[in-house]
Design brief:
- This protein folds into two domains: about 230 residues, Rossmann fold, CATH 3.40.50.300; about 130 residues, Nucleic acid-binding proteins (OB fold (Dihydrolipoamide Acetyltransferase, E2P)), CATH 2.40.50.
- The chain has a six-stranded mixed sheet with strand order 6-7-8-3-9-10, sandwiched between helices.
- The protein is about 25% helix and about 35% strand.
- It is elongated and about 80 Å long.
- The protein has about 375 residues and is an alpha+beta fold.
- The structure holds adenosine-5'-diphosphate (ADP) and magnesium ion.
- Adenosine-5'-diphosphate (ADP) binds next to helix 1.
């Protein structure tokens, strides 16, 4: 188990810069998830850490040792890929033993390690099977087992669950969480799926176009996204983003508010201190689960600074426990609202949205969060 430190890491393929000045501190034993859309550089970053790609510039330390120019073998890392990369002609046992054998380990030690790992991963009954005789989830467990027996200082996972069907993915997600609890090994896990990131991570690193957008605990990213990219990426359904335009601040304007217009309606946006001028663009963010429908929930308390917007329901999606209302505002902006699954609201109904001021996120013209 070891810490990992990335200092100003750059990676270019020819003239194309794919990783742009990434600096990160990963603590020993931490479970860190790299999340971002396809093509943002997640796999490349992982391959740089394990040594499958050469770092163009910057320094990589594992356990406070500079490993930037060490070979993958010397780094003490194990990687689990999306394609399990098992040897088809070997049994589960031999697949797990292979790396240790080539490293010249003692036969009885290898056996003990495989039996221990097989127990943790519930593979004990399957050690004599070949990969073709296993389900997708079992193959993935063998790939993880092969990594465990190497007793790496750091585990790397590259989208290990992407090839599994939805219910198996949820099951394996829980198993990986449990595994991390019991092994307590530093883990870096790559996924494009924000739900996996939220549920597995101690710390999430959101990546976009080779850059780090934000680093934080799952809940800090959910509660305080640093910019529009993170706001849109974390949370499902995604945060609603509504355009607003500032209006000239009044002389006696309370400094706690920004005067603005949303969809032709005057509003006061809660904000502690923000110097703004007339007619600046702002984005108001509000999560679907934080919008109330007036008249639906008797307990809703409406405060003076809250926003109210009249809208019409376009579509209702019923999932059972919750329903999603698809709505458009007068200026055409689409809005999604999560309501109770028991709600009787239906298409074409005119309703009033209630947006609690305390739940609003504000972003400036360049998409950065306004405090
Ligand atoms: N060996 C390579 N040569 C050239 N470009 C590459 C190579 N590997 C990855 N890339 C490019 O780097 C970018 C990031 O790729 P990748 O790290 O695989 O993204 P992700 O894993 O987030 O989907 C992509 O634009 C991809 O085309
Ligand atoms: Mg990838």
């Amino acid at each position: 188990m070891a810490s990992v430190s990335l200092k100003n890491i750059h990676k270019s393929f020819g003239k194309i810069e794919v990783i742009k000045d990434v600096s990160l501190e990963i603590e020993s034993g931490e479970f860190v998830v790299f999340v971002g859309p396809s093509g943002c550089g997640k796999s490349t970053l992982l391959r740089l850490i394990c040594g499958l790609e050469e770092i163009t510039s910057g320094v990589l330390e594992i356990g406070n040792e500079n490993v930037t120019s060490l070979s993958p073998r010397q780094r003490g890392i194990a990687m689990v890929f999306q394609s399990y990369a098992l040897y088809p002609h070997m049994t589960v046992y031999k697949n797990m033993a292979f790396g240790l054998k080539t490293a010249g380990e003692d036969k009885s030690k290898i056996d003990q390690k495989i039996r221990d790992a097989a127990k943790v991963l519930q593979l004990d009954q399957l050690l004599n099977r070949r990969p073709a005789e296993l389900s997708g989830g079992q193959r993935q467990r063998v790939a993880i087992g092969r990594a465990i027996v190497r007793e790496p200082r750091v585990f790397l996972f590259d989208e290990p669950l992407s090839n599994l069907d939805a219910s198996l993915r949820i099951q394996m997600r829980i198993e990986i969480s449990r595994l991390h609890e019991s092994l307590d090994c530093t883990t870096i896990y790559v996924t494009h799926d924000q739900v996996e990131a939220m549920t597995l991570a101690d710390k999430i690193v959101v990546l976009s176009e080779g850059k780090v957008e934000q680093v934080g605990t799952p809940m800090s990213l959910y509660n305080e996204p640093a910019n529009l990219f993170v706001a849109k990426f974390i949370g499902a359904p995604a945060m609603n983003l509504i355009q607003a335009h500032t209006k000239a601040p009044l002389e006696d304007n309370e400094p706690r508010y920004i005067n603005a217009e949303i969809s032709g309606k005057s509003v006061r946006l809660p904000c502690l201190s923000y110097n703004y001028k007339d007619n600046q663009n702002l984005t108001v963010g509000i999560r679907p689960e934080h919008i109330n429908i007036l008249g639906e929930d008797q307990k809703t308390q409406i405060l003076e600074e809250d926003l109210q917007l009249p809208v019409v329901i376009d579509l209702v999606e019923r999932l059972g426990d919750v329903s999603y209302l698809y709505i458009h505002m007068e200026d055409g902006t689409p809005v999604v609202v999560t309501v109770s699954g028991q709600s009787k609201l239906n298409i074409d109904k005119k309703i009033n949205l209630h947006i609690p001021a305390t739940k609003i996120h504000l972003f400036n013209e360049s998409g950065e969060r306004i405090m």
